[in-house]
Structures are given as structure tokens and as C-alpha cells.
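Preliminary data (for renewal application), iron/sulfur cluster complex.
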Amino acid sequence: MRDIFKCKVYKITLDAGFSCPNRDGTISGRGCIFCDTGGSFSRAHPSSLPIEDQLAKGVSRLKSRFGAQKFIAYFQAYTNTYAPVEKLKQLYDRGVSHPDVVGLSIGTRPDCVDEEKLRLIASYTGDYLVWVEYGLQSAHNKTLSLINRGHSFEDFAGAVELSRKLGINTCAHVIIGLPGETRDDMLQTARTLADIGVNGVKIHLLCVLRDTELENLYNAGKIRILSVEEYVSTVCDFLELLPPSVSIHRLAGNGLKELLVAPKWLDEKFKVLNMIDRELEKRDSGQGRFFPEFNNNKAFLS
Ligand code: SF4
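Predicted structure:
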């Protein structure tokens, strides 16, 4: 962001009032087993506010707290392409209406885009930095079924391909520690993302939030949550497999404190980030270390 815009750029999370086909009964009425009732919204400000007010609040908070100067309007809550194209255009136009907004980022499901919607999103690329963030979570269909995603890996691959053709940056959301997955399964997801050529990856830990199906499984002793050491070491392995050109949008999720059931260590996110830094230093390693075309090139350490 600093290279492109020469200043601090922060994301403002928005809730534009969308729903999700995996919650409203179109795909299933259950939702993903980890999803809370806010549809993964950060709740940085009340979601009931008009988009313009959410933007104004975000701008003022991030300017005073972090010295941010420019902003990316991030349509985060639920499925932000789940409406007719005309409605989407109105909402996205409102998202970029603030003069300090330089980017547009849209979080969605890979089975909820088509060429018409992606062409609309691509129409913003002339004036804004544009990303579509696809919830994937795992490259393994058996896991996607277990966590009730309601889409397949192939849906994701198709959406990424079409987005790329239209010049849109793509980011994949993944979760480390999903039930039934071995460490090798998780690392295979990293290799698959490297092969498929996404531009960004957002890494989350599987965390248990209140009033989710996952909470019931956790309380029944049917799932295990990773320790902080296991998480840190798996994230470092994951990073080593991703190409150096992939931007890492997140290294650990923010479990909303009031909803977080487990793990409690996620409350100290900065400690986790520092541990990731230290682990990579200890390994004398970094992102891309084991990405095949990057082997033997130490430039990533600079
Ligand atoms: S697709 Fe997203 S909003 Fe919908 S249930 Fe899953 S996590 Fe929640």
C-alpha cells in the first residue's frame, strides 16, 4: 500500500445488509459451522448504520488511532455479491463515495459470483485498487463438506480464474486447524493456492465463537483447537510454501472478545504475531522459502 499510495492505507469494514445463501435456506439454513450470527463482521461500528456513516466513522477512528490517510472500503459481512447487479452497483458506488477511499474489497463466496457481477466489480479497477476476497477455508472437498461450506474447491478455482481474466485481484481466506485435517492437509492447501495463483491469502485460526455449531461440537469434546505453538509453527510452514509475491492479508484472526469461547490465547493477537516473527527468524526463513521457483534465492529475507 505504501508503495502504491505513498501513505498509510487502512481497511474500513462495512456491513451493507447482505445475507448469505448458506444461511437463508438457498443452499442450507445452517451456515458454516464456525460462522457467528454477524456473518463474520468485525463489528468495529454498528452494522445498522448507512454505508456512508460506517465509512465516516471508520475514517475518523483509523485516522486518529493509526494516522491512516487513505482507505479501502471493505464489504465484509456475509456474502457481498448476493444481490442483483443493479443493487450491487448502488452499494459499491456508495462504498467508494468517500473522497479518501482508494480501494474496494469485496468478501464473498466463490459460488456467488458470475461473469456479470465480476464485470461490474472489474469496472472499478480503473479508479480503485480492487480485490475480491473468496472464502475458501480449505482446498479439500471433504473438509468443505464437514464444515458445511456448501461449495466445492472447483467453485473456488473457477471464480479465481474468471476474476483473473477480468483483472481483479483475488484473496483466499483459509482456516488453520479445521476439524479432520492433518498438518499435511493444511499445507496442501498452501501448495494448491500457490499453484492456482491467488494474489493474496488471509489466514485465520479455527476459533470457537458463541452460538455456533462449532461451539456445540467443542462442548461435546468432538473437536480439538490448536495450541498457540502448533498454530505458529503451521502458519510458518504455510508461509514458506506461498510465493513471495502473494500478499498476506492476515496472520491470525481477531476472535471477537465478547463471542470468543476458545482458544483464549487468541485474545493476545500481537503476542501471536510476534511469535510468528520469532519462529521465522529462528528458522532463518520467510515467505516463499519452499516455493519451488524461489528456492535458493535469499532475497526474501531482506
Ligand atoms: S459463507 Fe460466510 S456468511 Fe455465509 S455462513 Fe459461511 S461464513 Fe457465514
